[in-house]
Amino acid sequence: MLRRSALGIGFSLALAAMAASPASAQQTAGISDNVVRIGILADMSGVFSDLSGAGSVAAAKLAVEDFKKKHNPAFGIELVIGDHQNKTDIAVNIARDWYDNKKVDMITDAINSAVAIAASKVATEKDRLLIVTGSGSTKINNEECSKNTLLYAWNTYSFAALPATYLTRKGHKKWFFIGIDYAFGHSLQADATTMIKQEGGEVVGAVHYPLGTSDFTSYVLQAQSSNADVVALASAGAGLLNSLRTAKDFGLDKTKQLTIMGGSFDDVVALGTDVAQGLLIAEGFYWDFDEESRAWSAHFEAATGKKPSMLNAGLYSAIMQYLAAVSRTGTDTAKDVIADIRSQKSINDVFLRNAHLRDDNLMSHDVYLLEVKKPSESKGKWDVYKVIATASGEEAFGPISQSKCPLVKQ
């Protein structure tokens, strides 16, 4: 129930390892080379760069700095940055090089579902750790699950289930989807469809556009001519922004309820409340949720000039929880780190609330259903949401009994 780029491909940049204390000069038992190396596999210049890119790098640097200040561990920490350019072959080559040659212990971000799944296969092969914070395809914790890969920040089920359930229960029974034509968009639509049907609704139509599309006129006109009550935009990044602006230009919001599935805080800020007002969206973090989120967000803003998104907070949390596990266990081996994180029965930090790591390696945590404020309600650029409801991890991500992951004992 709802409650209130390396290898001559792209680039790779190694940030200086930060020695914490004289003790770090000594070999720490189980820490390879006495250095924990973390790779940020990001989209630095492509369609998802606003969601990943510089924001991921900033969040990672803050996590390392904050962990050092709090724990002063006896090992060094090094960040390595790579641009996968939304190409699986580049992502695989970077991941292989990092694991084989750069002695990277954990890779994170991995925005773009195809990239995440490809990198997961490398992590499994090399027996290293991948913590996915940027991507959210449910395949990552179902058919494509791996003992070496954690799906940490969100998945398409959570983003689809909350608005689909909420709107269908309010009587919006007929749905039309405009979605991006790859795993992410199809997963959003499939997960939402399941919830819509459970609540007595139906999907009356759908269109899918290729990555890089800029003209959404024909897609919006098809949605407009349908008998749908709701038009769901199942995409992210530039495609989401352009499709929503086109929908507004054609007055689609005057005749249909619009909802975003896969959008983010950054998308809403880019659109502005005058364009995005009234939209429903699910997210796992909002900077203005409570005193803790506001304090950390001010910390992030001081470093970057902007408020953090869910993906920024999720990546920060993932690195902090990873380093805490390494510190507790005294090792950076994937098996031991994952076992330690799983042993933490209720994890709470600036991002995770009431969280635990499930047997399918999905991090279950609270998720919020948000409504974009009217311009008259907003107090400034970053003040865009009001919280409509909070869903527990099981409500947001579905019960573990429904998992298709072979790691789960049925």
CATH class designation of the largest domain? Alpha Beta
CATH architecture of the largest domain: 3-Layer(aba) Sandwich
Low-confidence stretches: 3-13, 16-28
Strand order of the largest sheet: 1-3-2-4-5-6
Average predicted local confidence, pLDDT:
90
Straight-line distance between termini: 25 Å
What is the radius of gyration?
21 Å
CATH fold node name of the largest domain: Rossmann fold
- Approximate helicity band: 25-40%
The oligomeric state of the chains shown is single chain
* Alpha-beta content class: alpha/beta
CATH superfamily of the largest domain: Response regulator
- Total number of helices: 14
How many DSSP E strands? 15
In short:
The protein is an alpha/beta fold and about 400 residues long.
List keywords for this structure.
Rossmann fold, 14 helices, alpha/beta, 2 domains, single chain, disordered N terminus, four-stranded parallel β-sheet, 410 residues, globular
Description:
It contains 14 helices and 15 strands. Helix 2 (88-100) packs parallel to helix 3 (113-126) and helix 12 (310-329) packs across helix 13. Helices cover 40% and strands 19% of the residues. The chain is α/β, with parallel strands linked by helices and 410 residues long.
Write the layout of secondary structure elements.
Elements: E1 12-14, E2 35-42, H1 53-71, E3 76-83, H2 88-100, E4 106-109, H3 113-126, E5 129-132, E6 149-151, H4 156-169, E7 174-180, H5 183-198, E8 202-209, H6 217-225, E9 230-234, H7 237-249, H8 252-255, E10 257-261, H9 265-271, H10 273-276, E11 280-283, H11 291-304, H12 310-329, H13 334-343, E12 356-357, E13 363-364, E14 367-372, E15 385-391, H14 393-397
Parallel strand pairs: 2-3, 2-4, 4-5, 5-6, 7-8, 7-9, 9-10
Antiparallel strand pairs: 1-3, 11-14, 12-13, 14-15
Helix pairs in contact: 1-12, 2-3, 4-5, 12-13
